Amino acid sequence: MAKYDLVLIHPPNIYDFREKFVLYGPISDVIPSTPVFETYPLGFITLANYLDKEGYNVVISNLAMKMLKNKNFDLERYLRKLDANVYGLDLHWLVHAHGALETAKIIKKNHPDRKVLFGGLTSTYYHREIMENFGQVDFVIRGDTAEEPLKSLLEKLERNKPLKDVPNLTWRGEDGKVRVNPQTFIPEDIDKYVMDYRVLFKSIFKQKDLTSHLPYQNWFEKPLTAVFTVKGCFFNCVTCGGSCFAYKRFYGRVKPVFKSADTLLEEIKIIGEYSNIPIFIVGDIRLGGKKRLDKFLKGLKEEGIENPLIYELFYPGTRKFLAELAKSTPVGLEISPESHDEKIRFKQGRKYTTKPLEKSIKEALKLGFLKVDVFFMIGLPMQNRGSVIENIGYIEKLIRENKGDQRFHPFIAPLAPFLDPGSLAFEKPAVYGYKVLRETLRQHVESMEMPSWKYFLNYETKWMTRDQIVDLTYESAYLLNKLKEKHGLIDEDEAHKIEGKIQLTYSVMRKIDELVQLGGINHVKLIKLKAKVENNDSEILCPKEELWPTYKANITLKIMKRISRVLRL
């Protein structure tokens, strides 16, 4: 018998990232993870927790983290020893396509009689192509909630029963034909799929391995957790693969479903028992209705939650709402207007005007919010170079109006590395002014063999070519860095460090372009460029420290003792 019923495996974005040189640029600068995208989906935790309660032996293995932490880590040897009936790989974000498919090959090579399963939104979108063209994958579970289908699949495999009744399953029969079972499991109640982080301790205990469970490289220095409030969406942001349009058309969810206030409070309390780590509240907490919101905020106060909560807002908040947030816990705020230009913002799907946005920022700072992050984007419909440069000017206006308050953090980043499959812009490019350069999964995997992030980009717009989007990313990064230094949002040393990175990585990117234009990749010259960059090819948009709340977030002695005890057993 196998040691585990199921191993949930998170691959790196590019399988052989340690051997090759890739200029990643800014593709992960405004998220906690490195360009390897080592953060595994939080769905791993709900899956492991649900299946553990159902009696299955499940562990999590973050391969991306293990490879990142140890340059001598032997992936094939590790996978050869990892004994499971089913190996479940996430292909939730398209950025992991290369790593997921290559890892699946190694698993099949070493365990030819065991099953390899893919899941996640990207797997759902490309389920037929995966099953028809990539023989290393045995199953795809479609949709945004895999707990019940996965339990059904494990039961059928254990009892050697037919798979035709497993909901949401795409699979290959013994005759080699691909079969697509109906997508009948689309739960309207998601409260029983709890984000209970205690299941990680069980997984650590089983494997005696802490690295496999860390969510990103510097988690102990800058810890952050998250809870999800919703599945699905009301909104139709043009470039989003998780929009209302995408959910209806590809993922079977007609309307959003929300976790109850009680379940969210339970999840937050579990985290608070072990640490005062900041918690990111994913999804606008207002969208589940006022009754749920009021119950949630009341519960935070009654429970005495001390963890800082970072709220994601899809539209500006009133002073009353922001004041209620400020009364409950230490609080931070994130909002993404995408553009300063209302016409561009409306076209993108963010249909609110600028004045309420500005008022929300001011009110949040007045109310003592720990941090207010405002995100703008490059690569939007109707956006050209002039509008992006104007956006930088608008950011300076916001800085001045808020008197250089260091809790205000503006960011501007490219839509990278991909335009989401399933988004309106990807599915109807002509309508929204986009040109899709790659459509199939295989084409995207092949693009990730290229040595620069520019060649990952799978789109251009009517208003900007791919080259212009990339050039403008570096230009805007340079201008925003100067602004932040000028107004004291970052110190002089940090600003000079970032400026040096921008200049270095841009010059290296140009040299890579020259090699590509010569009609082939000269690996000897690429290795020389790799030595020149020396891990300075990211954090050109901002230092990672800007992404965390201005709050002393300590891993408590209690959680450290718990982890140490588990690893000693």
Write out key terms for the chains shown:
569 residues; alpha/beta; 22 helices; TIM Barrel; seven-stranded mixed beta sheet
Q: CATH first level of the domain at 223-416 and 543-569: which class?
A: Alpha Beta
User: Count of helices?
Assistant: 22
Determine the mean pLDDT. Answer: 93
Shape: globular
* CATH 2nd-level architecture of the domain at 223-416 and 543-569: Alpha-Beta Barrel
CATH topology grouping of the domain at 223-416 and 543-569: TIM Barrel
Structural class by secondary-structure content: alpha/beta
How much strand? 5-15%
Could you give me the name of the CATH homologous superfamily of the domain at 223-416 and 543-569? Answer: Aldolase class I
Low-confidence stretches: none
Distance between the termini: 23 Å
The tally of strands reads 17
Question: Rg to the nearest angstrom?
Answer: 23 Å
Characterise this structure.
The chain is α/β, with parallel strands linked by helices. Helix content is 42%, strand content 14%. The strands form four sheets. The protein has a seven-stranded mixed sheet with strand order 2-1-3-4-5-6-7, sandwiched between helices. A six-stranded parallel sheet has the order 8-11-12-13-14-15. Strands 9-10 form a two-stranded antiparallel sheet. Strand 14 (371-378), helix 15 (385-401) and strand 15 form a beta-alpha-beta unit. Helix 12 (319-328) packs parallel to helix 14 (354-366) and helix 20 (492-517) runs antiparallel to helix 21 (523-533). The longest helix has 26 residues, at 492-517. It is globular. It starts with a strand and ends with a helix. The mean pLDDT is 93.
